[in-house]
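Lecture 7 notes: from sequence to structure.

We start with a single chain of 151 residues. Read the sequence below before looking at the structure.
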Amino acid sequence: MRKIAAFIILKCNDELLLLKRFKEPFKGYYVPVGGKLDPNETPLDAAIRETFEETGIRPEHFTYMGTLFEVSPVEYNWLTFVYLAEIPYQPAPECNEGILEWIHKDNLKNILTPETDLHIYEKAFNQQPFAYSARYDAELNLLELIDELNP
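Now the structure, written as tokens:
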């Protein structure tokens, strides 16, 4: 069964506010804030709710960037709607999901982050829409990533 989620890239100039996760999947990795859609909730509604729940921040505007469709032979199968929100700089708030930290774009390749996310961050910094399809093995190693908009 596929899970449907929204994640939000919180950006201030050349930095992203990322979450170092406490839980699996990707425990210890840096990821955008976000989560599963609730019943009767649109992806944008989920983006607004998840951003506030995890950071206490209420961005004025969310820009829809694209989708990430992920498949694997295990229970990791997701359809994620990705949004970008430009926010003013502020100290990283506390979060019960992990540790929030500002990461400069030049340091993104030096942190533990899902490989798919690096491609998404590049698109976000360049304001380019995307539709990614990702295939993983049972250990969640990325086998294939296709940008359906630019095959």
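The first strand starts at residue 3 and ends at 12. Keep this in mind for problem set 3.
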